[in-house]
């Protein structure tokens, strides 16, 4: 695992390893961590939003509705669509914020 990057979740202090080319969300799930809610795993639902506080990463495609360019410029990204290029420090959204976003999305889709 010498090529793996260390990901640190700032609020909880949880640390886990992420292999090159592996999404941060997949690495979290493989190690049994539940730092963020999980939805589509494809960048469309916005449930797994995190803020990258430090480190370098690549981004896959993400919904602009959930991660507009100005948010992305501030480090807000979806854990399912980021791939570390170095060790990262991230901050996960509090569960109650994520649950509110889920309820709003559900309400909007029912209209």
UniProtKB/TrEMBL annotation:
Phylogenetic lineage: Bacteria, Pseudomonadati, Pseudomonadota, Gammaproteobacteria, Pseudomonadales
GO molecular function: iron-sulfur cluster binding
Annotated PROSITE patterns: 2FE2S_FER_2 (PS51085)
Name of the protein described by the UniProt record: 2Fe-2S iron-sulfur cluster binding domain-containing protein
Pfam families: Fer2
Native source organism of the sequence: Marinobacter orientalis
All residue ranges annotated as the 2Fe-2S ferredoxin-type domain in the record: 3-96
């Amino acid at each position: 695992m010498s090529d793996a990057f260390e990901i640190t979740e700032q609020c909880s202090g949880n640390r886990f390893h992420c292999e090159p080319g592996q999404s941060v969300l997949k690495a979290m799930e493989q190690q049994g961590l539940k730092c963020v809610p999980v939805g589509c795993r494809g960048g469309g639902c916005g449930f797994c939003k995190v803020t990258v506080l430090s480190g370098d990463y690549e981004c896959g495609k993400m919904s602009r509705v959930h991660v507009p360019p100005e948010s992305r410029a501030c480090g807000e990204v979806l854990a399912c669509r980021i791939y570390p290029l170095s060790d990262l420090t991230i901050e996960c959204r509090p569960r109650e914020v994520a649950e509110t976003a889920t309820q709003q999305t559900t309400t909007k889709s029912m209209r």
